[in-house]
Batch of 4 targets.
Target 1
Amino acid sequence: MRGERRSIHARAFRRASMLICVVMLLPLLVFWAQDAPSVATAWNVTLVLPRKLVAGQPATLAAFGVDGKLAPGVSVDLGGVQRVQTDKTGRAYFITPPARNILIVKAAGNSAAALVDPTPPANEAQTAAAAVRSAISVAPFVSIRDAFTICGPGLRGDADVNYVKINGEPSLVVAASPFCVSVLPGEKSSPGPAKISVESAGTAWTAATTLVSLEFEAPNPPLVPEKKSSLVVRARGSEQRLRIIVSNETPGVLRFLRGDAEELVTSGGAANFASLKIEALRSGDYSFHARLVPAPDAESARRFLEAAAPLAEKDLQPQIRNLAKRLAHSPRDRERVQAELSQIISQTIAGDFRTLLEAGRNSL
């Protein structure tokens, strides 16, 4: 999903509104009514996969266009084995290729990766599901405008047979597997405490979380080319300190002084904000996006790095394997590993190797 797009003018930023918000997604009915992709959605997409897949089992993925809407008619390559096309809802159903521990999907020059677990024996799967049948997991804080993950036993890979409600309002399941689903809050969702209910194949679960809305204030002072300014992000819905990442989506027009993706911690309290320094480079449209940092998952990061190592140049392979070993033996070293990965990624061209490195870094 994308951030708000605005313009920098030669004289000054025109304050049409004092509050710049990340674009709200259109009502879910609009997603279902689309018949054909626009040029923007077809040729610049973000792919969403469930966090984990099961070899040989059904799954659902989603494609979002540059406009933040689900994109129908997008052809997606599934690890070079098969291709699927997103339907009118912007999603595609598929069977996870067997005998793999990683799946990389590609569309319109972009890619995404997910871990693949082997299919458990029937008796083992039934025992595990029965032991934790009442449990699903969800992060304590989730964005009101981005898809978030719910994991637990008894889910289904067909997104349409998993029913999720937030505070009683239906939400759209955009991606799914037998282990996890990715859910987009409905248009009526509001910031604050939320009760989540999930029903799949006759089994029901509940969980609690907090919906957070990340909103931008107009840069102060107004943006003028070659001048520095400050950008403020406010977190509505919680007074807790939150880790967020703000991404610059138009680096040719706008510059963040500490890199195009900056991790920040909000202040907490009633105001609950974070700020960063920016500079306008020239006149033109610009956009940015803020998201919550997910809880670190060192084990998933290790698996992505182990899959990436054979794809690296020979002189780089030992370093990648060493990073994976550090995560296995010292998970608390994740911040240093993340920093090293960022350095490697900055010098790596697009491809499967970079996709796996980014998946590993994002897991931390």
Target 2
Amino acid sequence: MESFSRSTIDGFIKKYQNGTSSLIATLQDIQEACGYLSRDAIAYFSASAHVPLSKIYCIATFYRSFSLTPRGKNLVSVCLGTACHVKNGENILHKVGRDLGLEACEGTTDDRLFTLEKVRCMGCCSMAPVVRINDDTYGNLNQSAVPKLFAHYRKAEKE
């Protein structure tokens, strides 16, 4: 069973005319449409656009914005840079992981609503510790504030 639409990928190839000159843009579009870069989607793109599979994987694994595994609808990034680390960012990470049911403190929830990742610095050191959910940044956090972070996103999913 395919996790992507061949016609959608064909449209992206046509949109950029040449898969190699706009490889990153094409991969971004595929990821946006599919939620991640599945093995099947990459293989189909490689064959259809005549781009070596090794080149696609080189790009997809080099840039952190690409994911080869399914991601949740909401990306949760917990900063573990120096300022956040000093202000107990690791404790925030573990609390977020527990609240999302992710024992490894990274990964995607079973319902694919959230993906949790650790990041080294968000450039918000004066607000440490910091969590970013999609484009929303939450600073000066403590563990008791963590559950409230997800209420809005869970509510939006139900609506």
Target 3
Amino acid sequence: MKNLNKLAKQYKETNDPNLLAQLFQLLKQTIKDKSWYLFYRKGFVKKRYEKEIYDERIEDFRKVKRVKTFRLCDIKKIELKDVEQELSLLILELLKRYDSALPFENYLNSKLSFWRPSVIQDANFVKDIDTINESDLVNKDEIPMFESLAKQEPIYPEEVIDYDKMFENLTIIEKMIINILRKNPEFTQQQIADIIGVTQQQIVKYLKKIRRKFIKRL
């Protein structure tokens, strides 16, 4: 994508939020396709083990290696939208780090080839797959329905924020908003909304939730 490489280079040089919005528009289908594959088709390793089978050739038992896998769509601990938001956050980070002298598309593809959602790297995630009821895995309040978000006046966190402490209790979309604001404090709510793919009113709601979560941890 010549346009993608050109936009990425221009954004790296100018940090223009309009260019960033155009970049994410170009990558919109890529994000959807990659997320869909990881959520519905990709098999992740759940367990590696050995099993004894009877081998008629040697007339005895022998050990064979086996791998048990799972798919994210079967677990109910993460939704497709979560994967899309986390992948968008990764792309934002890659834009900040890549060398503009090189084609961004090649750099992006190399990183996406081995990327997987962070929830899978949680030490307890795979272990808990068989031990927790599905109803316990889904937190309905974690990501509110967009249709129910009320229009309210913007409220930004004003306190000196310990981001590491705060990130422990944020959802993926909330982490993405904070990361965008940390790196681009001049961005407006509408610019953030354009990058993430929600409305400005929804950004207002998320900012209020972020503020409440942080205050509770003080």
Target 4
Amino acid sequence: MALRELEIREAAPASCCVPLAAPDLTVEDAATTASVFKALGDPARVRIVNLLANAGDPVCVCDLVTSVGLAQATVSFHLKKLVTAGLLEREQRGTWAYYSVNDEALGRLATVFRTKGVGR
């Protein structure tokens, strides 16, 4: 049990999401999953994930400002929340940061709502 708790603290929340129908969902699992949904709980963040999911390549924060219609500081704040949750990846190129969707994390997130009857 201690090993699993250590893994949850060190990993981004999106890397640890377990299905809500899991018979052994712990308090820690529930908190981790809730933190991912909290990161997506803002319309601007959902829009950012949408824009990045539809982009072919990583996108500069400067390009997101125009698309989202918010100040750069606000967009950067939202991006940090999404990166911390493990939903986005950040790459530094000189003075600018480029962002892309963490496909693996979003794939795991897609399994959160699976129930026992799915896939039969």
